[in-house]
Write a structure and sequence with these properties.
The complex is a heteropentamer of chains A (about 475), B (about 625), C (about 170), D (about 100) and E (about 550). With about 475 residues, chain A is mainly alpha-helical. In chain A, about 75% of the residues lie in helices and about 0% in strands. A two-stranded antiparallel sheet of chain A has the order 1-2. In chain A, β1 and β2 (about 70-75) form a beta hairpin. The two termini of chain A are about 40 Å apart. Chain C is mainly α. Chain C has helices at about 1-20, 25-45, 50-75, 90-110, 125-130, 130-140, 145-165. In chain C, α1 (about 1-20) packs antiparallel against α2 and α2 (about 25-45) packs antiparallel against α3. Chain C is globular, with a radius of gyration of 20 Å. Chain C starts with a helix and ends with a helix. Chain D is mostly helical and about 100 residues long. The N and C termini of chain D lie far apart (about 55 Å). Classes of the chains: A mainly alpha (about 475), B mainly alpha (about 625), C mainly alpha (about 170), D mainly alpha (about 100), E mainly alpha (about 550). Chains in contact: A-B, A-C, A-D, A-E, B-C, B-D, B-E, C-D. The interface between A and C is large, with 52 and 39 residues.
């Protein structure tokens, strides 16, 4: 019995490692950082994310498979690495505004952020369903914790518990799906699944059901109706910075994995699942938007809005093909930017200890904090899909993909939904600019990092809105990689 | 040179209007009257050039350049000076100048002196554009322009509610006719590709066959405009109310000039009307009926200006009667004579009102001849002219119309005309007797210091009285007087079909009409001078008739009930019920439905984990079910 | 012959599983769950997955259930009323219907299975030749190295998370 | 009762256990027991993996089960921590009473 | 050629945009500087547009000053600007009214001047972009993007119900335009299917072989978007609310420019892109236009609020424009374009005037006024000219447009032209009744006695408009000549489409569809889908009749 240790190709791990090491370093470093300098945790996190971004950019165009295809390094993965790193970066920045100096366990907080980023990266680059599952669990466990991070607050506890119970429940289905696919094909490695199916064998119900169960798992993560119900509660109860992270990151990760699995491994199932997702997309968009209409809590409203946006992305998924997938990628970036921007603005607008949770809290801010409010308005317009913003371009691309694939009905429902959504996004602006505050609040110190996050997101939102071609090009390259 | 005719009052209007506030009153008067006299001078100049041309070629045109051109359609700022335009321009600028002069005195006390003169000048300009235009569209510019001036001048004393609503009424009633004209014009564009008179009249016989429906409708559309502007049935209702304006305005606009624009339009369009005998018939009948109808109302009115106003309507009816029976020249002749004597009557009435500080009710007058000699004399001349007593102007022109009517075979219409003549004699002299003769019923405070108007008012009276007495001779002998020889070539040859009756019967007919008028005068004399109680007795004897006349056959009330109020209430109902509730309601309804759907769906989000689990389960089961059993 | 082993184990597994979800005392539930774990462990043995069977007992019955019991005792939670007495019975009925359908769907899927997955190289003979545990070990450090490493991070996250959350 | 137990027997058993777990999640109100039901589901899946592993002559299934166990352990640890934290604030772990966040 | 004159069109768009950024950097308290700066920028933009006007070549039918740059190449969209005889008048209208509106906002804004002026400049930029964009996506970006500043203008600086009004405005507009976006995309794909090239270039798309069936749907989507913007009956109810609540400048630009975008959209996009569908829809839209003319006028009569009255009058006036556009002949279309400008001037001026008395009396209720002519003579004069322009007095601008529209329409639908002429009467009714109640009569309210007449700034706002009203009224050819070539080309595109002979109703019927057409469509309907049947009630497919 001899154990030959394999040659390990480290390259696929290269962009992930800085994040993993960063997470560990923060965990350890926190012990040594003096009490007044806890933001060193954040800075360390930023550094590791920056490194990851750097590596990802350098590796653009390289294609590698690690042992047993567990990880795949390709443009698709790198695209998402960049997205996750960016999301994480912005999250860290806005967390710096959200957590004050006295918040305990900052080291744990930032390391968990990094670990969940790691989980996302694994989901996006996993070449094996097991890796995707493990990435999902890494992400989820870290997020459960982060949701309950304000452990003294009942809402935070409740969010964490709900998230955990439902998340575990859903991952049970997901895992079952993996098991059935394993049974049907004899492997969990995506390439082999694809090869197995490419032989022209007809796929029995086992595989179909397995795929369906995977869909449930992804549906849960992207908060698609009817697997969405945890979303508003968790997003409301979780700390605001975490909500931002979840909204922007989780969804992207889930869609990344989804595309890898369904477009790359199970393309032959397209006919079955596109019909299913058609329905999911419609339900998701419609419910998200309709319920968001009647929300008064900004976080909750954005939570429902995130559900609706998941629906739009699902439209692109249904549309499929190169355009559809490109649309997914493009939209996810736009979506991440505008949501993070909005949350960063919420955080940057808040005073210490008093979050602006309710719509009414925003009264009169438009002219008291003009720059931030203007950015907030920009994000809202972008979320509503009004040009010239990223949100508009995203929708344009998604709906054009839908039309290209002759899903006219879906596109019509989609745009009508986006009209409905305009109402509640604009309502926040109405309150900021068009109503008078109940009482003057004392001016509060600004959090420079959060403001920086707002600024970056705003620039990104406008940049993509005005000149989307570059990002589209990147997304298309990524998709081309996936098709191989 | 032709363009200078309307331009000079236009410039005057602008100068007075924009700078009048800072000008002295005398300068305002000088500029305004100067502009008017320039217009008259230029008209005379053009006229002189015109008569120097041979009779058949008496026409010249001038264009200031294109106005609207779109596709194959184009219209220019072109003017035309032919005998018809010449007569109109002369009448307008001549009578206009006199009334300008008259206004110097009449309006002397008014605080909006410059506004008045500015508008008066503007009116003159627009009226001259109307009569000088060489195409229908430019005519329409003047047509609407004079309407605007009329509107603003009726409402000159806009603080009086009656004046304000009279102005609005005038504009709106006219607008109905104008819309018809617009339709007529756009139709002409389609038919002839142009609105230029010469082209239209050249193309018309080819494009529209004689007596065709199209020709009838087209000419009737134009005539509809004319009934508005010239206050014929059924659109006459604005004119009596228009008396709310200052009296010089009534004289100029609502008697001498503007109201005759309709007559001018029909006369100008004679070649079109010739193609549509039915239309001509209608014109004649409308004219004849209006003449009698208005005269009948005038019999009992007590407001001095209103009587004259109804008289105007009635006389305009004569003109249309003339046009309708093809006696275009006679119609225009009557237009000219009427301009003189009706302006005279109004100015004289104005002089009375001026002297009585605004009193207009005949029942409060009487015996004014003693204090207002010149006024009374000139009024008498006007009344005689209006009543058609030989040899005053009205006799010649009216007689000619009646003769043509009879000669063209319209016996019944002739009867109407003759009856009207009797009525005319009656109401004119009723007016004269009530105002100037008999016993004074004046407010004693007024009667103490009655005095004649200033020279600026008296001079026009005298001049107009002279005119009223004499212009009729231009039309002597009937049908071949200098007037007709001058105007004749303008109208189509067929227009003279009525001239075939024997001259002998002409004299008989003229005598008959004259007798009718005299009878009317005599009755007026008896009723109002000899037996002052008689009218009341008569009124008591025929209460229905009397009230019908007094209340003008309740036509205003009818229009109010049948047209104005339904439209108003329809508008109100549309606005509140339909627009706000139905249309906007459904818009808002959709919105609130969406919102309510959100509220309902929201309740699904109970906060309970089991519910959420159930939801996931539903998803799983349906999804797997689809995949297993369907997909 | 296998049936003789399989049937009782399956019966136990089902019975204990049902107990877990119907018993009202959390403690009994936990103990029933331990029973299920043991039954499954037996089934794993039957399936010639000796290593997994052992780990099942050690991790689940040993570690996880201890945690559960610990928490149950720590929190001293009471009994809950039986499900069929609760207000939201319609929902439960719906749930049961759905679950019946779910089972049906799974059964159909499984029943109509045409086993067509790629056969791997590890037949029982091969496995027995190398040894189940050795084989698993070797695979963990070669083919499954990366998932294995990820698992370590998961555990780390769980530890950190548990610490953060359960701190006072 | 002769011969080998077919794969389907294991799969059906596993499905049944999975469904029982689902029922548990649905009907129980005690967060702990819901948790146990979830563990039941995971175990059921494990059985499927091992059964497939056996019948496909592939070791992958067994190794995956190992990972699943690790994940389950992690989940339990975290879950119990959350339950404790919640209990501290609320004195209850009945999910029916946990509905501060709703609508 | 003028094409070499540099990126003047981009400059037109960018100048106000950069101006807005510049203003954002100025300290908010320096209001007078901000106002002047905004006016200067806007005025400069106007001068630029005058250069465009001066260098515009009337003989060229196609686009001039074209600028093209790659933009979103992956979906075939490019940055493409150009101006022709159809957009030129509207461009000028926009650049003219913008500084006027800014000048009018020197007072009466009530705070937050900086934000206001920024919005005004952004709005200007967006409006110009709408009229210049020749790429469908680019057009849409401007079309919707322009909602943002307008949304703020109404919502922040508006009246008491501003929030309701502004949300209604934005939602209504968006509801209409999103479907248009889809239609644009679908059009591009259809075009790609036929030609293999994915493009949003309007000029390339025109004349593309779009199947009749598809044209109908696409046209309907475009038409809905534009009809809401126009607004055509029955999509008009956002307008009165928006107008009543908007600040003066907002109303001016809303009525003056924004509404024209709808009618412009029909001319620029809906008609040439889908000529056969346009022909098929023509009876329906003409009917709606006529209904709008009469309905708007009737409802105007019943209004007590000056702004509401003017708003409904816009519905009526825009009905004329729509009627003209769908008559599809040279006179009518030119009249419509001219009428767009006219309406912009006269209604813009009306809103300015209403704003001026509102600033003095803080009410717009007609009943509150009366006899204002006495105290406000200059105001009265301006008001009179504008009123007369609005009711189409010959010699002023409104008449020329209306007359051309009627003349053109009459060739096609006699009945519609006659009904529209009734609209002329009604227009006089509501305007003059309003005039009578506001300007004439006695002064009943003591507050009205002390009102001051128009000041120098106010005259500076109104006099240019009045001069334009007169200039266009007396010399419309300057504008008409520049339209000729482009409009002819447009009509050629409409008529030149395969099988595009419009089903002109026989002369006698005049209304709607000839009965034979109805029968045709009904007999055909068995083979069509339900939507098609519904549509079939309104038109007959031209090709099937011969």
């Amino acid at each position: 019995m001899d154990l030959i240790l394999p040659q390990i190709d480290w390259l696929p791990l290269a962009p992930i490692l800085p994040v993993a090491i960063g997470g560990l370093a923060v965990l350890v470093g926190d012990l040594f950082f003096p009490a007044g300098r806890k933001n060193l945790n954040a800075i360390l996190s930023l550094a590791s994310l920056a490194l990851s971004i750097f590596v990802s950019i350098r590796l653009w165009g390289v294609v590698r498979f690690s042992i047993n295809d567990a990880l795949v390094l390709d443009r698709f993965g790198l695209f998402f690495f960049l997205v996750f790193a960016l999301v994480s970066l912005l999250t860290v920045l806005l967390s710096m505004g959200y957590l004050d100096e006295n918040t305990p366990d900052q080291g744990e907080y930032y390391s968990l952020v990094l670990f969940s980023t790691l989980g996302m990266m694994l989901m996006a680059s996993g070449g094996d369903l097991v890796v995707i599952f493990l990435g999902l669990e890494t992400l989820s466990l870290a997020l459960y914790t982060l949701s309950g991070f304000r452990r003294a607050e009942l809402r935070s506890n409740e969010a964490a518990l709900k998230y955990l119970l439902l998340g575990a429940f859903a991952s049970g289905f997901f895992l079952y799906g993996i098991a059935l696919i394993y049974g049907a094909t004899g492997t969990t490695v995506l390439r082999r699944v694809a090869a197995f199916l490419a032989d022209g064998k007809s796929h029995g119900p086992l595989l179909v059901i397995g795929g369906g169960l995977l869909l449930v798992g992804f549906g849960f993560k992207v908060a698609s109706v009817p697997f969405h119900m945890w979303t508003p509660d968790v997003y409301e109860g979780a700390p605001t910075s975490v909500t931002a992270f979840m909204i922007a990151g989780t969804k992207a990760a889930a869609f990344a994995a989804f595309l890898r699995v369904f477009v790359f491994a199970l393309p032959t199932l397209h006919i079955q699942w596109s019909a299913v997702i058609w329905v999911l997309a419609v339900l998701t968009m419609t419910l998200g938007n309709l319920v968001a209409l009647v929300q008064n809590n900004v976080k909750r409203m954005l939570a429902y809005s995130s559900i609706a946006h998941a629906g739009y992305v699902l439209v692109a998924v249904v549309a499929g093909g190169s355009s559809g997938a490109t649309g997914v990628l493009f939209y996810l970036v736009a979506y991440a930017l505008m949501n993070l921007g909005a949350f960063a603005a919420i955080i940057a607008l808040q005073g210490h200890g008093q979050e602006l949770l309710f719509l009414g809290d925003y009264a009169g801010l438009g002219f008291r904090r003009p720059a931030l409010a203007a950015c907030m308005a920009l994000f809202m317009f972008s979320l509503a899909g009004i040009p010239p913003t990223a949100g508009f371009m995203g929708k344009l691309y998604i709906f054009s993909a839908a039309l290209e694939a002759h899903y006219t009905g879906l596109a019509v429902i989609g745009v009508l939904n986006s009209v409905v959504s305009v109402y509640f996004y604009l309502r926040l602006i109405v309150i900021m600019y068009m109503s008078e505050p109940a009482a003057e609040r004392p001016p509060v110190p600004r959090s420079a990092p959060a403001v920086l996050a707002v600024g970056m997101s705003a620039l990104g939102t406008l940049q993509i809105g005005l000149f989307p071609e570059r990002l589209l090009d990147l997304a298309r390259q990524s998709i081309a990689a996936l098709g191989r | 040179m032709i363009w200078l005719i309307p331009l000079s009052p236009l410039v005057g209007s602008l100068v007075v209007g924009l700078m009048g506030r800072r000008m002295r009153r005398s300068w305002v008067a000088v500029v305004a009257c100067g502009a008017a006299s320039l217009a008259l001078l230029f008209s005379l100049g053009c006229f002189a050039r015109l008569i120097s041309l041979p009779a058949e070629g008496r026409l010249f045109r001038q264009s200031l350049g294109p106005w609207i051109a779109s596709g194959n359609f184009s219209v220019a700022f072109g003017v035309l000076f032919d005998p018809l335009s010449a007569i109109m321009a002369l009448v307008v600028s001549g009578v206009g100048l006199l009334i300008h002069v008259y206004s110097i005195g009449y309006m002397a006390e008014d605080r909006d002196y410059h506004r008045f003169f500015s508008l008066l000048n503007l009116f003159l300009a627009e009226m001259l554009v109307l009569v000088l235009a060489d195409n229908y569209l430019l005519l329409f510019v003047g047509w609407e322009g004079v309407g605007l001036c009329s509107y603003l001048l009726i409402g000159f004393w806009f603080e009086r509610p009656a004046a304000a609503s009279a102005g609005t009424k005038a504009f709106l009633v006219n607008r109905i006719g104008d819309a018809a004209v617009v339709v007529g014009l756009i139709w002409m564009i389609q038919l002839f590709g142009s609105l230029d008179y010469q082209i239209v009249f050249r193309e018309a016989p080819a494009a529209l066959s004689h007596g065709s429906v199209a020709a009838t409708i087209l000419s009737l559309l134009l005539f509809a405009g004319a009934t508005g502007k010239s206050a014929q049935l059924p659109l006459y209702v604005w004119l009596p109310d228009a008396m709310e304006g200052p009296t010089p305005v009534s004289a100029l606009i609502h008697a001498a000039t503007m109201v005759t624009a309709g007559v001018y339009l029909v006369a100008r369009s004679a070649p079109l009307f010739q193609l549509a005998p039915v239309s001509l018939e209608i014109v004649a009948w409308i004219g004849g009926l209006t003449a009698l109808y208005a005269a009948s109302i005038a019999l009992v009115q007590t407001d001095i200006k209103r009587v004259i106003a109804y008289s105007t309507i009635s006389q305009l009816g004569y003109m249309f009667l003339g046009l309708g029976v093809g006696a275009y020249a006679a119609g225009i002749f009557h237009l000219m004579t009427h301009a003189f004597f009706k302006a005279l009557l109004f100015l004289a009435a104005g002089s009375v009102i001026h002297a009585l500080h605004g009193e207009q009710d005949l029942r409060n007058m009487g015996a004014l001849r003693k204090s207002l000699g010149v006024t009374a004399a000139s009024f008498l001349v006007g009344a005689l002219a209006n009543a058609g007593i030989v040899p005053f102007a009205g006799f010649w022109s009216k007689d000619e119309i009646l003769f043509a009517t009879y000669a063209s075979g319209h016996r019944l219409l002739w009867g109407l005309g003759a009856l009207t003549a009797a009525g005319t004699g009656f109401y004119m002299f009723r007016l004269y007797f009530l105002a100037f003769e008999g016993k004074s019923r004046l407010d004693p405070r007024l009667s103490s210091h009655l005095h004649e108007a200033p020279w600026s008012m008296r001079l026009p009276l005298v001049l107009l009285a002279l005119g009223s007495a004499t212009v009729g001779f231009f039309g002597v002998p009937p049908d071949s007087g200098p007037f007709h020889r001058f105007l004749g070539p303008v109208f189509p040859a067929a227009a003279h079909e009525g001239g075939s009756a024997a001259p002998a019967s002409g004299i008989v007919l003229a005598l008959a009409a004259l007798v009718m008028a005299l009878v009317g005068i005599v009755i007026a004399f008896r009723y109002y001078l000899q037996e002052p109680g008689r009218p009341e007795t008569m009124a008591a004897q025929y209460p229905t008739l009397y009230r019908a006349l007094l209340y003008k056959y309740w036509v205003d009330e009818l229009y109010e009930k049948a047209v104005v109020r339904p439209i108003s209430s329809a508008a109100g109902a549309l606005s509140t019920s339909f627009d706000a509730n139905m249309i906007d309601g459904s818009v808002n309804g959709i919105a609130s439905l969406v919102g309510r759907a959100g509220g309902v769906l929201r309740r699904l989000q109970t906060g309970h984990v089991p519910t959420y689990v159930l939801s996931i389960l539903v998803g799983v089961v349906v999804l797997l079910g689809y995949l297993v059993f369907v997909g | 012959m296998e049936w003789l082993v399989f049937a009782p184990l399956a019966a136990v597994a089902l019975a204990t599983a049902v107990s877990v979800i119907v018993l009202r005392n959390p403690m009994y539930c936990a103990l029933s769950l331990v029973g299920t774990f043991f039954a499954l462990s037996g089934l794993f043995l039957l399936l010639q997955a000796q290593f997994i069977a052992v780990v099942q007992v050690i991790i689940y019955a040993g570690a996880i259930m201890v945690l559960f019991l610990f928490v149950i005792m720590l929190l001293d939670v009471g009994h809950e009323p039986p499900a069929w007495l609760r207000r939201d019975r319609p929902k439960l009925v719906l749930g049961m219907v759905l679950i019946g359908l779910l089972l049906l769907e799974l059964a159909v899927a499984i029943g109509s299975r045409v086993s067509q997955g790629i056969q791997g190289p590890y037949t029982s003979e091969v496995v027995n030749a190398i040894g189940n545990t050795q084989l698993i070990g070797r695979l963990l450090f070669t083919d499954f190295l990366i998932p294995f490493e990820i698992t370590s991070i998961i555990l780390l996250v769980a530890i950190v998370g548990a610490m953060v959350l359960a701190k006072r | 009762m002769t011969g080998a137990v077919p794969l389907n027997a294991y799969l059906i058993l596993s499905a049944a256990l999975f469904v029982i777990g689902v029922i548990g999640v649905l009907i129980r109100r005690n967060a702990l027991i819901i948790f146990m039901a979830i563990e039941l589901m995971l175990n059921a899946v494990n059985l499927t993996f091992v059964a497939f592993s056996r019948f496909l002559a592939s070791m992958d299934g067994q190794i995956i089960v190992l990972f699943v166990m690790a994940v389950a352990a992690a989940e339990v640890a975290l879950g119990l921590a959350i339950i404790i934290a919640l209990y501290r604030n609320k004195e209850s772990i009945d999910v029916d009473e946990i509905n501060l966040l709703r609508g | 050629m003028s094409q070499t004159s540099g990126p003047i069109l981009s400059l037109l768009i960018l100048l106000p945009l950069l101006g807005a950024i510049l203003l954002a950097l100025v300290e908010g308290a320096r209001e007078s500087l901000i106002k002047r700066l905004a006016l200067a920028i806007s005025g400069l933009d106007f001068l630029l547009s005058v250069i465009v006007y001066a260098r515009f070549d009337p003989a060229v039918a196609g686009m001039q000053f074209v600028e093209r740059a790659p933009w979103i190449s992956s979906i075939g969209s490019s940055y493409l600007l150009g101006v022709d005889g159809i957009s030129l008048p509207l461009l000028l209208l926009t650049t003219f009214l913008s500084p006027v509106a800014i000048l009018a906002s020197f007072s009466g804004i009530g705070g937050r001047v900086k934000g206001f002026m920024i919005c005004m400049l952004l709005l200007q930029s967006g409006m110009i972009g709408v009229f210049l964009a020749l790429d469908l996506v680019l057009f849409y970006v401007f079309w919707e993007g322009m909602l943002i500043p307008m949304y703020f203008l109404i919502g922040v600086w508006g009246g008491p119900r501003r929030v309701y009004a502004t949300l209604k405005f934005v939602l209504y507009t968006m509801a209409g335009s999103v479907l248009m976006l889809l239609a644009m995309i679908a059009l591009a794909f259809l075009h790609r299917g036929a030609t293999g090239r994915l493009t949003f270039d309007l000029l390339e798309l025109i004349g593309g072989p779009i199947p009749y069936q598809a044209q109908l749907w696409l046209f309907a989507a475009f038409a809905l978007a534009f009809a809401i913007k126009v607004p055509m009956f029955p999509f008009h109810t956002w307008l009165p609310d928006a107008h009543v609540e908007a600040p003066t400048a907002g109303s001016v630009l809303l009525a003056g420019v924004l509404l024209k975008m709808g009618t412009y959209g029909f001319l620029r996009f809906a008609l040439p892109l889908f000529p056969r569908a346009a022909a098929a829809f023509s009876p329906l839209i003409s009917v709606l236009a006529v209904v709008g003319i009469l309905y708007g006028a009737l409802v105007s009569m019943a209004q007590d609020d000056l702004k509401r009255l003017v708003a409904y009058s816009s519905v009526s006036h825009l009905g004329f424009v729509m009627l003209g556009i769908f008559a599809m002949n040279l006179q009518a279309v030119e009249g419509s374009i001219l009428q767009m400008v006219n309406h912009g001037l006269s209604t813009g001026a009306l809103f300015l005037l209403v704003g001026m008395i509102y600033e003095r009396r803080h009410t717009r209720m007609i009943g509150e006024f009366g006899g204002l002519s006495r105290v406000l003579p200059r105001f009265a004069l301006c008001f009179l000219v504008v009123t007369m322009s609005s009711i189409g007095l010959p010699g002023l601008n409104g008449f020329v447009g209306e007359f051309l529209i009627l003349a053109g329409t009459f060739r096609v639908h006699k009945g519609f032209a006659v009904l529209a002429a009734i609209g002329i009467i009604l227009a006089a009714v509501y305007m003059l009744r309003m005039w009578q109640r506001v300007m004439w009569g006695e002064i009943r309210r003591p507050e009205n006695l002390g009102l001051g007449d128009l000041g120098r700034r106010e005259m500076a706002i109104l006099v240019p408009i009045i001069l334009l009203i007169l200039w266009i009224g007396l010399s419309p050819n300057h504008l008409l000549r520049r339209m000729d070539a482009s409009v002819s080309q447009l009509l050629g595109q409409i008529a030149g489409a395969p099988r595009a002979q419009r089903s002109v109703p026989p002369r006698s019927s005049g209304f709607l569809v000839p009965s034979s057409g109805l029968e045709t469509s009904l007999t055909l309907s068995s083979t069509r889908n339900p939507g098609e049947i519904v549509l079939g009630l309104f038109y007959s497919e031209p090709g099937t009749r011969n």
